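B., you asked whether I could sanity-check this one before it goes into the benchmark set. Here's the sequence:
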Amino acid sequence: MRKLFLASVLALPAFSLTALAEEPPLPAGLGGSPPVQSSGEPALPAGLGGDEPALPSGLSSDEPSLPTGLDDGAASSDTGGEGAFIAEEDEGAYKLPFGLTGFIEGRAGFRIHDQGFEKRASIGEARLQLQYEKFWEKVSVRVTSDFVADPVADRWAIDLDEGDGWVDLREAFVSWRATDFMDIKAGRQVLTWGTGDLVFLNDLFPKDFDSFFIGRDEEYLKAPSDALKASFFSGIVNLDVVYMPNFDADRYADGARVSTYDPFSGGQTGRGNVLRVDPRGQWFAEDEWAVRAYRNFGAYETALYGYDGYWKNPQGLDTAQMRATFPRLSVYGASVRGPVYHGIGNVEAAYYDSRDDRAGTDPVLPNDQFRFLVGYEQELMPELTGGVQYNLERTLDFGALKKNAPAGSPLPEHNRHVVTLRLTKLMMNQDLTLSLFNFWSPNESDGYVRPKANYKIDDHWTAEAGANVFYGESRDTFFGQLEDNTNVYVSLRYSF
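And here's what the prediction gave me:
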């Protein structure tokens, strides 16, 4: 069904980056080890889960803004005039036919550590993004597709769920202003809500952590969903209802591109022993629902959230088949965001109801969790902004889990603490942006630093350099397991 979208696809000539993609030999014994991973693997974020900052102007908008750093500048609201997505006229600019916009980009990176689990090159891709939009009185359409050539990945067959292959369809939806109080958007779309900065509590829409860890632009942390979204507006409360007829999992680190901890061998997963997963892919039978009710109280944006579906990354384990699984999950939460002192503060909480093991006694299934986030950001001095967050993940029924877990098996922390820091400095008439983002877990003694420099050469050309630095004292913690994936990267983009 999803492959019907490919009728709009244009071909991108691939260019060779074979030198970057050369693969080192695997260590002896690695290639024959079974592809495994389990619920013992540290959970994909809620330390890397972050909900985006809420709208500065109010929650009455139909579409919330993307998290800090995830707005690529091309994304806009779904309604508006014909020129809503078109920049000022530039007579010297190259223009595509049919009103197409987009960019072409080259991005290359390599790992600092010479380890045998992955290729030394972390990324080496040429990317062309094309976007087409058309507006009528009450209806609009948008199609955004990326065409990718990356010999480092060496995956050319198209898989729209995983984002593999030479085509990644980002958007293909129809938006309809049905009435003055209701909007409907149907098709492939990027969805987001919540208040965190790269920390996601109530945002259960899919993420692409492989992209995040290897140095793609931050907009690619948000993966697309195939969904029907209905938005209702009133003077009392606004409501978003999202139905996803087929489960959209995260694009998680499975060893194919980013090596992770293997709790069975105590070593690492990698290209030679990729995680085996029991997927959920039955349309309308394995579906998802997400609901958000939101409104403003003065300058403060408030919201209630609900989700019914599955853990977005494989937190369970089928021990008989040696496959990771996606257990059932419901989430209930709330958030507040608004002015505090000289800046903006936010508070968010969520209860994770792990429905396949509510008693918390099955060691191969995740326990219920309580998650809490508090954050604050403000301008520290002219053109220097700082933000801090504290995130708690508390495993409930921890005593029952510990009692029933096999001796020596890895257990999650009873309370996992993560502190984040973001610094952003604008220089050279704001053409140069220097940023630093750090995740740090004081009780797991690990972390993740993302330094980046972005330079706007002119209205069309942008150069960027950055790094993904992982550190930790133990290989079985969330960030510590990723230490061998530390990498640096550069990119050059031409937008049109």
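One thing to flag: Confidence is low (pLDDT under 50) at residues 1-88. Otherwise nothing jumped out at me.
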